[in-house]
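Holo model, flavin mononucleotide. Inputs:
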Amino acid sequence: MLAPMQGLTNRALRGLFIERVRPDVVFTEFVRVKASTKKNITENDRREVVSTVAGVPLVVQLIGTDTEALLAAAGTVQELGAAHLNINLGCPYGRMTSQTAGGALLREPFALARMLEALRREIRGSFSVKVRSGFDDPAQIFSLLTLFADSGIDFLVVHPRTVKQLYSGAADHGITGEVVRQTPLPVIANGDIFSAAIGQRVLAETGAAGLMLGRGAIADPLLFERLRGRCPGESTAAGKVDELREYLQELLARYQALFCGEHQILCKMKEVLCHVHDPEVLPLARQLKRSKSLAQFRELTADN
Ligand SMILES: Cc1cc2nc3c(=O)[nH]c(=O)nc-3n(C[C@H](O)[C@H](O)[C@H](O)COP(=O)(O)O)c2cc1C
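Output:
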């Protein structure tokens, strides 16, 4: 699965992934649900949720604090055509945690149980939860497993870091494996899967039903194909540079069709480059991040 990533997994980027590497499932960026039940989803989010491409399931992820508003939003996105919904129980940032949305919902398990049960009754297709291992205690997830199974969700995506941890330390897939053993729900492992070798090891060691790829796939979309054994586990240095150029050329064309204005398009391209850390492509990535114009960016991605 391609992870939901705010600022990144918009319909243009998802379309590229579907055409090039066809993830089994893709997610929207989180759709923020405001507390009022009327007009609680932005126009852009409404456009996001209608898009499905080439038969790859699109999971619409909701984030919010108010059950009534989330129910109304679930109803709206289903009317617009969404078949699969997910609730974010992991976001560690700002307003989301101060308003008891995202990862902060983990601090109120009784309210969370009621919210999940209500959403389950409203959602006709698949309903899943994406969760961190706890708010501040990495073992908290084990106390939530009965709640998740009883609420009737279809699968669980586990990112085994606490909310408080943000992105520090390593994702502890020992926790993922223990969750797999303790719950009847299918578990998707997420977190720090930056290479095919890591992904295969996480699958083997946890017994998870599947993997969700975030930053690793944004840096290298071929990670999906590498994991399936359809591409070498790692390309040569020259191959990596060519792959990055080709990926960015295609993404740029798609971003020019979706976003407006040189500045916005350039910023969106640079957001992708923030996740490129492979030393063999880093010099190119750094040059691209310094580009002052789309013409310059395009020139740097052009084949030599
Ligand atoms: C820039 C960025 C945006 C993210 N946006 C979301 C989001 O909208 N919803 C969500 O559930 N997780 C979001 N995440 C978390 C990722 O989906 C994923 O759980 C996390 O990055 C760990 O996976 P990875 O190590 O494969 O990147 C975001 C992460 C990053 C770095």
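DSSP finds 14 helices and eight strands in the chain. The mean pLDDT is 93.
Archived with the compound record.
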